[in-house]
Amino acid sequence: MANPPPNLRARAALAVAGVMQGSSLDDALAAQTAALSAADAALLKAIAYGVVREHRLLETLAGSLLQKPLRNEPELQALLLCGLHQLRAMRVPPHAAVGETVAAAPALGKPWAKGLVNAVLRRYQREGEALERGLPATAAVRLSYPDWLVAAVKADWPDSWRQVLAAGNEPGPLTLRVNRRRGERASCLAELAAAGIAAEAVADAPDAVQLAAPLPVEDLPGFTAGRISVQDASAQLAADLLQAEPGQRVLDACSAPGGKAAHLLERVDGLDLLALDSDAQRLRRVDENLRRLELRAGLLAADAAKPSAWWDGRPFDRILLDAPCSGTGVIRRHPDIKWLRRESDIPRMAELQQRLLRALWPLLGPQGVLLYATCSLLRAEGEEVAAQFLATHADARELPIEAGWGEAGSTGRRIAPGGSHDGFYYARFGKTPGASGS
Amino acid sequence: MAVLPILHHPDPRLRRKTPPVERFDQDLQRLIDDMFETMYAAPGVGLAANQVGVQLRLAVMDCSDEHDQPLVMINPELVMTDDPQEVEEGCLSVPDIRDKIRRYNKLRLRALDRNGQPYELEADGLMAQCIQHEIDHLDGKLYIDYLSSLKRERIRKKLQKAAVAGG
Fold first, then answer.
1. A192 and A48, same structural domain?
2. Which domain holds residue A190?
3. What is the value of ipTM here, to two decimals?
4. Measured on CA atoms in the order A88, A89, A95, A99, is the torsion positive or negative?
5. How high is the pLDDT of residue A9?
6. Is A112 within 8 Å of chain B by CB?
7. Could you give the residue numbers annotated as active site of A?
8. Is residue A162 one of the residues assigned to a domain?
9. Both ends of chain B: CA-CA distance in Å?
10. Check: CATH 2.120.10.30 for B12-165?
11. CB under 8 Å to A325, separation ≥6 — which residues?
12. Is A111 on the interface with B (CB under 8 A)?
């Protein structure tokens, strides 16, 4: 007989430990779920996402349950957190949560730790409420964020920082983008309703449909046929903001995985769109997405910050710069961002964003529009980058965004994460009439 | 000791009922050692003699995490079964496939050890599952026989394709 199925808790612990050692949660999960059934993979993901999301809180709790801290045992530590998360927040029967988690210790090669895991989880069952009350009352512990990120969000969102941080702990909804070339949003909603899938239109994103509960996308009517794609409502705002017109020449400078490029091509006829990404592997995802939707664009693996290597000298009518950023606006979908980012990443990201804006600006035609976007919560990667750019480019002016979503800043518009929207920043620029090039 | 090649479904040699072991000689001891090595290398928790092409009513098992509970079953039979449950199962002769079937969660086994001495033991959980799986092998049965014919046909096609692809 083949070996029995691997213990899911052991695998979840390995995925969590992988993230805390610097791997992305997507990569860590892919390695652990490859051979599993869909149901097992779903349970493993639910545990791992939950533990990564609340890692600091769970770690603090585990610290109060252990007589002495575990040293150099990242997998065992992660296993304890998986057990605690199941007892605190999941609808796993407590005896199964404890039993399966204890059984996972030998599967991690640590049979000696069975007693320890059992003792810690049972103590939590007995004394959990009191221990929870005794946890430090700080937002960093209670909401599980690193100190530097709490400080940064507090500074940038002085009135709503707590909601912003809390929103990052609520898993975002599954939001679809309806392909206008293949049908209306109303018919998509009708089709979903007929399939018994609860969904509603998102008010401020005209092609967005939000599902009441997440589902595997392959199971949705019309996904493989290219009638729908998955894309958050905030990201779907880019297509309208760019104001592209039929036949225009468009650059999508940091395109992968290609959602915004595809949306533009779905919406506007005859665009001559060049999708650029520095990563050839990731550019393949753009190709896959466009193929599924039967859309055409030029694809180029190149560094957007060095146009001399790839630009043919013909100006673009529209440029979308969805710049690399900290991703702090999409923590609700990628909780590993909390632990993978460092404070020192932010100034480096801001410098990269500035460099991209400066490099791409000369490529924009006289009547052109450049849309700058990041999925960051931080002013340093949004408003400050945009303001700095305007201050140093006499031939650039802001094209203000009038909208019902988000809030206007000194430059551009930002969206707080929560509900239908990921956290996002948009600013729009055009050339100053009559000014000479910079 | 040596790692022996494991036969894969649909090999007809997996479908014969094996005759009882009668001679407890040096050859048998060597075969048992090789079967343990083959099973640990697979990796698996149980291996029947006909899975390595030997038509004898003999199987080896080890359901421990540390590989320290080897068990030899010769001419085994079940004297009691109880508590049927759904369990997930896989077979070294049906590689890369797992499915749920019903097995008794508790049983009592009667068998001979590697020296021909009779013993009885009670087993539950994974060990009980494995004992039933190996005795099925010795009777010419595979766990996939308990699946729907549709599933079984899909598995047969998949394995045939893999065998062709692997040369």
1. no
2. 175-230
3. 0.89
4. negative
5. 94
6. no
7. 375
8. no
9. 27
10. no
11. A349, A353, A374, A375, A376, A381
12. yes
CA-based nearest residue in chain B for residue A109: B65
The stretches in chain B having pLDDT less than 50 are 167
pLDDT given for residue A438 in this prediction: 46
Mean pLDDT of A420-424: 97
The pLDDT of A376-394, averaged and rounded, is: 98
Q: Model confidence at A334, in pLDDT bands (50, 70, 90)?
A: very high
pLDDT in the model for residue A223 = 87
Q: Is A263 left (phi over 0), alpha (psi -120 to 50) or beta?
A: alpha
| Partner B contacted by A102 (CB < 8 A) | no
- Please give the residue of chain A at the shortest CA–CA distance from B92: A2
Taking CA–CA distances from A34, the nearest residue in chain B reads B96
Q: Which sign does the torsion angle of CA A270, A431, A399, A367 carry?
A: negative
Contacts of A3 in chain B (CB under 8 A): 43-45, 90
Residues A341 and A407 in one domain: yes
* A5/B130 CB distance under 8 A: no
Is residue A12 a part of any domain in this protein?
yes
Token pair, residue A229, equals: 């794609």
Number of domains comprising chain A: 3
- Please determine, for residue A89, whether its predicted confidence score (pLDDT) is greater than 50: yes
> Is the separation of the CB atoms in B87 and B124 below 8 Å?
no
Q: What pLDDT shows up at residue B158?
A: 83
Smallest Cα distance from A414 to chain B, Å: 49
- Of A204-213, A406-415, B52-61, B147-156, minimum mean pLDDT range: B147-156
Q: Is the pLDDT reported for residue A435 higher than 80?
A: no
Give domain status of residue A411, yes or no. yes
CA distances from A233 to A137, A209, A324, B102 (A): 34, 8, 19, 47
| Paired tokens of A424 | 């996002």
